[in-house]
């Protein structure tokens, strides 16, 4: 199983930007379709975006389309989430995981990384 560590979160004003990173251990990162998820207190973890192994095909939840961009660098075993025009409702802990299909919101790995907190103030 790939070990995942998220970073890049922080406190930002509404309308601001952040870039999250997901660093993966192991040599099999490139073989996985990867995704970003987020969780707010009292709510279930929500799918945010996914990116194909080829780094070209992507999928986003409607609420972030046009604002967030997912990308990956297989040579660096790292995935990114560029978040622009942030809104208070984007406040959450963000996690990464693998998914079976580009259209799937079901994570593959049972074990999650520590996540990274994103807080957007109004």
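^ Assign residues to that structure.
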């Amino acid at each position: 199983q790939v070990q995942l560590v998220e970073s890049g979160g922080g406190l930002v004003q509404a309308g601001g930007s952040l870039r999250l990173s997901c660093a993966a251990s192991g040599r099999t990162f490139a073989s996985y379709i990867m995704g970003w998820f987020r969780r707010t207190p009292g709510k279930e973890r929500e799918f945010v975006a996914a990116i194909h192994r080829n780094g070209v095909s992507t999928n986003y939840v409607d609420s972030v389309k046009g604002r967030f961009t997912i990308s990956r660098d297989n040579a660096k075993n790292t995935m990114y989430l560029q978040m622009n025009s942030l809104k208070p409702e984007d406040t959450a802990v963000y996690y990464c995981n693998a998914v079976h299909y580009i259209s799937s919101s079901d994570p593959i790995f049972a074990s999650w990384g520590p996540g990274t907190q994103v807080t957007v103030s109004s």
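Residues 105 and 118 are 21 Å apart (CA to CA).
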